[in-house]
Amino acid sequence: MGDKTVVDHMDLLKKEIEELTQENGELRSELRDLTRTLKDFQEIEFKRKHQDRLRLEADSLKQLEIDSRLRELETEKCKTQEERDRAE
């Protein structure tokens, strides 16, 4: 009777090992998928930040050009005002 109990217990442990092995495989597969998804997200985020940085640099250059043009126009305005004052 004792041998039967040991055999039953061993069968139960083997079944539990098989189930845990299968679950472990599924978890490893899910982990690989999640890792892949995370890498994809990080790559997309890196590209987005890079594009944002490039856009910001381009906007900064445009702003510098606008500021420079405004200074030129202000100088021209002053010269025009001086010429008008002299003409009067």
Q: How does the SSE layout of this entry go?
A:
Layout (H helix, E strand, L loop, with lengths): L1 H86 L1
Question: What key attributes describe this structure?
Answer:
rod-shaped; mainly alpha
Helix share, percent: over 70%
Mean pLDDT: 94
Structural class: mainly alpha
Report the order of strands and helices: H
Low-confidence stretches: none
Number of DSSP helical runs: 1
Instruction: Give the strand content.
Output: under 5%
List how many beta strands DSSP finds.
0
Mind describing the biggest β-sheet? none
Radius of gyration: 37 Å
Rough outline: rod-shaped
What's the end-to-end separation, in Å? 127 Å
Give an overview in words.
The protein is mainly alpha-helical and 88 residues long. Helix content is 98%, strand content 0%. The protein is built from 1 helix and no strands.
What's the gist of this structure?
By secondary structure, this protein is mainly alpha-helical. The chain contains one helix and no strands.
